[in-house]
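REVIEWER CHECKLIST
Item 1: Sequence provided? yes
Item 2: Single chain? yes
Item 3: Sequence as submitted:
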Amino acid sequence: MLNKLIVVAALLLPACFANAHEYKVGELEIAHPWSQELPPMHRTLLPIS
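Item 4: Structure as written out by the authors:
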């Protein structure tokens, strides 16, 4: 049980530091990235089970 908890914590930890609000690489600056909602019947890469 403790091993599973440690694995889950290790997988979720990087999400705390992810910040996609604004970032800059060289001269390329990305501000307020967004993605469009998929249509309701769109096939995804991950099957929902």
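Item 5: Key structural point noted by reviewer: The chain has a mean pLDDT of 76.
Item 6: Recommendation: ____
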